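Your task:
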Amino acid sequence: MYKLNEEKMFYDMADGQAVVINFETGMYYGTSSLASAVLDLLVKNADPSKVLDAVKALDGCPADIDASFKAFIDELIAKAIVVESGSSDDVDISIDAAALADGFALTLNEFSEVQDLLLADPIHDVDVDAGWPVMGEGDGNN
C-alpha cells in the first residue's frame, strides 16, 4: 500500500490529469490519463492489487499490463512521489473508460522548466536595493 509523500510532494488532480510537484527539487510531474487515474487511487491509499484488477477489467487491456503497472509504481517510489503506508483504506476503486484517452500507457513525465520559480523563496530572497527575488551566485540571473 502507498500514500503520497506529503513531506516532499504536492499533489492535485484536475480534469482527470494528475500533477505532482516536488517541493525540495522544484521538479514537477505529469502523467498519462490512465496513470493519473491509477496515481489518484494510490495516493488515496487504495490496495494496489485491487487497482490493477480495475485496470485489467477495462476493455482491451494488454496482457503485459502487470509489468507496466509494477514499473509505474517502482518509478513513483524511485522519484519519492509515494511511500509505503502499511495498510490500505477502504477506497471505491473504479476507473472510468475516459482514463484510456492515451490508451493503456502508464507514463510519468518529469519537467524542470519552472524549477527556479518553484524553488524561489519570495519572503527570504528579497533584497531592498536589488529587487525581488535575489537569485544565488552563479545562476546567471544576477
